[in-house]
Amino acid sequence: MQPSCIVRTTTDHIADPLTERDLIDLCKKSDKGGQKLLYETYIKQLTRVCIRYVRDHDDAKDVLSDAFIKIFQNIGGLKYMMEGGLEAWLRKIVINQSLIFLRKRKLLKLHDLGEHHHLVSPDLADIDLDAKDLYASILELPVGYRTIFNLFAVEGYSHKEIAEKLGITESASRSQMTRARSNLQAIVKKLTNKNRGNTGL
Q1: pLDDT tens figures, 76-85
Q2: Which of 97, 111, 160, 185 has the most CB atoms in a 10 Å sphere around its CB?
């Protein structure tokens, strides 16, 4: 399997084609062109990740600025990974910086809501909604629910991992996730009905 190549657009002295491993090696050498290319290649994806947590675009800019400082400070210790692993590593740093931001603003107030085992966790898989509308719906969730939903449903963290990351109990993570899904289903249903009304269905 041939390694995927990163398409270069606005760097000067770097020769195409360039793989993730090449890009990592350049950034390890503090190569300015390599750092610029890494930023330009991933900034759109990472901005979307960040906004899913902090929501506000100006706050996201601040978080991403801190995240890229961490990225360039720590990329020197990054070992070779499978193709595609670089973006996953970048996402983790952005997520961690987003959580630090939310803690500093004291926006994460997570606790066990209790009786989550009696609640029905809605299945959103059968809801006809495009990715753009689903993304917008997630942003409408309260910050605590949104954070847990992002970590569990989008990023794939287990409740144990979430509990360790946020300093809460696994039970609190599960109950928050159940309520998050319920809230998201209500938001999606409202948006779906609105879209149907606009199309006259």
Answers
A1: 988 766 667 8
A2: 97
pLDDT tens digits along 35-67: 999 999 999 999 999 999 999 999 999 999 999
- Is residue 125 within 8 Å of residue 132, measured between CB atoms? no
- Record: fold of 5-104: Rna Polymerase Sigma Factor; Chain: A (1.10.1740)
- The answer to whether residue 156 scores a pLDDT higher than 90 is yes
The fold of 116-199 is Arc Repressor Mutant, subunit A (1.10.10)
CB 23, CB 34: distance < 8 Å: yes
pLDDT of residue 188: 84
Using alpha carbons, select from 46, 51, 40, 44 the residue that is nearest to residue 67.
46
Nearest one of 109, 171, 104, 186 to 141, comparing CA atoms: 186
